[in-house]
Write a structure and sequence with these properties.
mainly alpha, 67 residues, flat, 45% helix
Length: 67
C-alpha cells in the first residue's frame, strides 16, 4: 500500500512541476511578444450597437437576428 502511495505522489508531483514549468515558460514568451503572438486590429464594424441590445429571456440560449 505504501508503495502505491509513493508512486502516485511521485507521478502527481512530476506532473505538477512539469505543468508549472510550462506555464512559467508560456508567461515569459507572452511578455516578450515572442513568436505566435498576433496583434488583432479592430475596426468600427466590430462594434455592436448597444441601443438595440435586449437581454436574453428565460431559457433563450440562442437568438436568431434578422439582417
Amino acid at each position: 500500500m505504501a508503495r502505491k502511495l509513493i508512486v502516485c505522489v511521485g507521478i502527481f508531483l512530476s506532473l505538477l512541476t512539469g505543468f508549472m514549468f510550462l506555464d512559467q515558460r508560456d508567461d515569459n514568451e507572452l511578455s516578450n511578444k515572442g513568436p505566435g503572438v498576433l496583434n488583432v486590429q479592430q475596426s468600427d464594424m466590430d462594434e455592436v450597437e448597444t441601443a438595440e441590445f435586449i437581454p436574453f429571456g428565460s431559457r433563450e440560449y440562442v437568438r436568431i437576428v434578422p439582417q
